[in-house]
Amino acid sequence: MINVGEVRARYPEFGAVDYPDDRVQLAIDDATVFVEESRYGKFYTQAVAALAAHFLVSNMSAIRYAAGGSTSAPGSIKSESVGDVTVTYVEGSKAVVAGASYSDTPYGQRFEQIRRMVRIGVMVV
């Protein structure tokens, strides 16, 4: 079982001041539901840490939005046109809110890399 210290060792940006131990542990617990140790093998710790970090960023973005950090949800359309189709998104459209994909954070992207390696298998040339 992966612990808070292992997540922080891999991703020191999740320090205890902004990310208390209980919040990090909850993200780890949530991530373990999606990552089977028997399937991920030696990549298990990396996969859980990356997915937990993705969840932490996702949650903080949602909290900031709910607290009024932005007047529009990230990714909301700021303006649009019909002739020659123009769409402008709210700044920070890559911020993560509920339902966002793994590609929206570098941690989710890392998780996807690991998931693809496990699914396809690591090739040695």
Q: What proportion of the residues form beta strands (DSSP E)?
A: 5-15%
Order of helices and strands: HHHHEEH
Number of helices: 5
Structural class: mainly alpha
- Let me know the number of strands: 2
Q: Helicity level, as a percent range?
A: 40-55%
Compute the CA-based radius of gyration.
17 Å
Q: What is the 3D shape?
A: flat
Q: How many domains make up the 3D coordinates? A: 1
Mean pLDDT: 78
Describe the structure.
The chain has 125 residues and is mainly alpha-helical. The protein has one domain. The chain is 50% helix and 7% strand. It is built from 5 helices and 2 strands. A two-stranded antiparallel sheet has the order 1-2. A hairpin with a 4-residue loop joins strand 1 and strand 2. The chain is flat, with a radius of gyration of 17 Å. The model is unreliable at 71-77 and 92-99 (pLDDT under 50).
Write the layout of secondary structure elements.
Layout: H1 4-10, H2 21-34, H3 37-40, H4 44-66, E1 77-81, E2 86-89, H5 106-120
Antiparallel strand pairs: 1-2
Task: Quickly list its features.
single chain, 125 residues, mainly alpha, two-stranded antiparallel sheet, 2 strands
Short characterization:
The protein is flat and about 50 Å long. It has 5 helices and 2 strands. The chain is mainly α.
